[in-house]
Design brief:
Length: 614
């Protein structure tokens, strides 16, 4: 997500701002920019698509002098990631430079009205609309810049954290927030500004967290002034930072993994934003629609991935076969690349990767491209190698996933696959419209249902205490729940170092049932599905051998709860969406077991976040 940094003081602003941008890189972004006011009162803006390092290269040889400036990392919402859409944005006269996090929902109306007044726009962003509005109000109402900001923000519907500087006003930064975080740091003869404290903490521990609808008037030689949108002056509440930089990045959670599990309602909303329109009954995945013929004429879909991303791919197999009637094969990238695979030019290959840098998946993509197949990427890290090496794709947009055990990336990968299958199925007319609309409408409920499951965290933590003794675990599921079972097992082994196996429940009797005794915990996903009754039979087989059953069930369940030793109740949903819910208690269970066993949850032994060697 976007990041804001600002500085006003006695030192050169540029190095402080660039360092701050680097500190915010973990948030995820696709372009960056900086605005500096120098002693000649020039307002210089430099922007670059890509990494902060690209911005630094771009700034080489340019005038980067000045002791006041603002800087930004942008995570695209309105308009593609490019130079024009990167922040800061100039006003029409190029006298004001503004950076912004958030979304201005009524920007279209505001933009139209400004256009009618003769304003022209250089970008597709909502941010440029705001800076133009501020300038328009300043000129037309003949008010100073802080008043203009206040009046403009009163017209804005949506979320924002903003900072701006004005040409000819080298002693002033104005900042404001609503629903997007903004922190002001109070230093020795200096003020700092940032989206979170990570760029500030090495300069000062004294910070002020702005509240919603507050405007900070940060003047070089004066006390910080905070006014509300309603023009009430506020007394700044200074907070002493006590947390370390690392803890701040965890947002108060004990581990990144727990934070990332809890982020999932938001990350799934982010992943759907701009793609699903419930009111118009539309799914718009531009990567699919721009290449519609490839998908409609696909002889086969080949899904290539590793680890958790491969598990998401297995769910994709169920989805594409059910809704698009296209045969699907899901392959481990590492096996596929060395197997002399048969690849047809009319195959569509879907490569799934959180990091976008997994070496085996990159190599498998090259193989598929050489054979003439169309390659579509599902990735999280913007600008990483896989999106750059595929013909088209969709980002998952969950922000940086720092915990090695993938959680929020998995659910977003599954969500992208769901949206793809629905989009293609509708175009192919292989999904009845009524069914499409039912699933679409239920997708909208998923984030809230995940919130409900997260509310069971304490119960799941209690349950985890029962299982810390275990040396082995079995996870069972059928249909859409089978990939969830193997993903649940992977989560447990990665961070708790307990041996865990995931199986399709019906496979038990073909061998693994020999492992069952009264010591063996068996986690069964037994939510409502077309195979619910079959799963009950499988549970009975385990029960007869005294296995200890922990079942994931729905509220309406009456049968499984009578057989299971323990149950976790999750909300009901469409069968194809159930993985988005049933994985959540399994993530929490493995997290709590690992914590109890004293493992390094975020950086488990022998594992790396991005596997760049084969
Ligand atoms: O970045 P990728 O999605 O390509 O990574 C694939 C696997 O390395 C990854 O999913 C790994 O299995 C995770 N540690 C799972 O939690």
């Amino acid at each position: 997500m976007c990041g804001i940094v600002g500085y006003i003081g006695k030192q050169e602003a540029y190095p402080i701002l660039v360092k701050g941008l680097h500190r915010l890189e973990y948030r995820g972004y696709d372009s960056s920019g900086i605005a500096l006011l120098n002693t000649a009162a020039d307002l210089n803006i430099y922007k670059s698509k890509g990494r902060v390092a690209d911005l630094e290269t771009y700034c080489q040889g340019k005038d980067i002098s000045g002791t006041i400036g603002i800087a930004h990392t942008r995570w695209a919402t309105h308009g593609e990631p490019n130079h024009a859409n990167a922040h800061p944005h100039y006003s029409q006269s190029e006298h004001i430079a503004l950076i912004h996090n958030g979304i201005i929902e009524n920007y279209v109306v505001l933009k139209e009205s400004l256009k009618q007044k003769g304003y022209t726009f250089q970008s597709d962003t909502d941010t440029e609309v705001l800076v133009q509005l501020i300038e328009y109000i300043k000129t037309s109402d003949n008010v100073d810049i802080s008043k203009a900001v206040q009046l403009a923000l009163k017209q804005v519907i949506g979320a924002y954290a903003i900072a701006l500087v004005e040409k000819g006003n080298p002693d002033l930064i104005i900042a404001a927030r609503k629903s997007s975080p903004l922190v002001v740091g109070i230093g020795e003869d200096a003020f700092f500004l940032a989206s979170d404290a990570s760029p500030i903490i090495e300069y000062t521990k004294k910070v002020i967290y702005l509240d919603d609808e507050e405007i900070a008037i940060i003047h070089r030689n004066e006390q910080l002034k905070i006014i509300s949108l309603g023009n009430i002056e506020k007394t700044p509440q200074i907070t002493q930072l006590e947390m370390s930089l690392g803890a701040l990045e965890k947002g108060g959670y004990a581990h990144f993994m727990l934070k990332e599990i809890f982020e999932q309602p938001r990350t799934l909303r982010d992943c759907m934003r701009g793609r699903i329109n419930i009111d118009n009954n539309h799914i718009v995945l531009s990567g699919i629609l721009d290449n519609k013929e490839k998908f409609l004429n696909a002889r086969r879909i080949l899904i290539l991935a590793c680890g958790t991303s491969w598990h998401a791919g297995l769910i994709g197999e169920y989805l594409f076969e059910e809704f698009c009637r296209i045969p699907v094969e899901v392959e481990y990238s590492s096996e596929f690349r060395y197997r002399h695979p048969v690849i047809y030019p009319d195959d569509v290959v879907i490569a799934i990767s959180q990091s976008g840098e997994t070496a085996d998946t990159l190599a498998a993509i090259e193989l598929a491209k050489k054979a003439g197949a169309f390659v579509y990427g599902i990735c999280n890290v913007v600008g990483s190698s896989i999106p750059r090496n595929t013909d088209s794709g969709s980002y998952t947009h969950v922000g940086p996933e720092i915990g090695v055990a993938s959680t929020k990336a998995f659910t977003a990968q599954v969500l992208v696959l769901i949206m793809m299958a629905l989009c293609i199925g509708r175009e192919k007319k292989t999904i009845p419209e009524k069914r499409f609309l039912q699933i679409l409408s239920e997708l909208d409920n998923i984030p809230n249902k995940i919130e409900t499951i997260l509310g069971l965290n304490d119960k799941i933590e209690d349950l985890s205490k029962i299982f810390t003794y275990a040396q082995n675990f079995i996870y069972l599921g059928r249909g859409y729940s089978y990939p969830v079972a193997i993903e649940g097992a992977l989560k447990l082994k990665e961070i708790s170092y307990i041996h865990a196996e995931g199986y399709p429940a019906a496979e038990m009797k073909h061998g693994p049932i020999a492992l069952i005794d009264n010591e063996m915990p068996v986690v069964v996903i037994a939510t409502n599905s077309t195979t619910y009754d079959k799963t009950i039979s499988n549970i009975q087989e385990i029960k007869a051998r005294k296995g200890r059953i922990l079942a994931i069930v729905n509220k309406s369940d009456t049968k499984v709860r009578q057989m299971a030793d323990y149950t976790i109740e999750i909300p009901e949903t469409e069968e194809c969406l159930d993985p988005l819910l049933s994985i959540i208690p399994l993530q929490l269970l493995s997290y709590h077991i690992a914590v109890k066993k004293g493992g390094d949850v975020d950086m488990p032994r022998n594992l790396a976040k991005s596997v760049t060697v084969e």
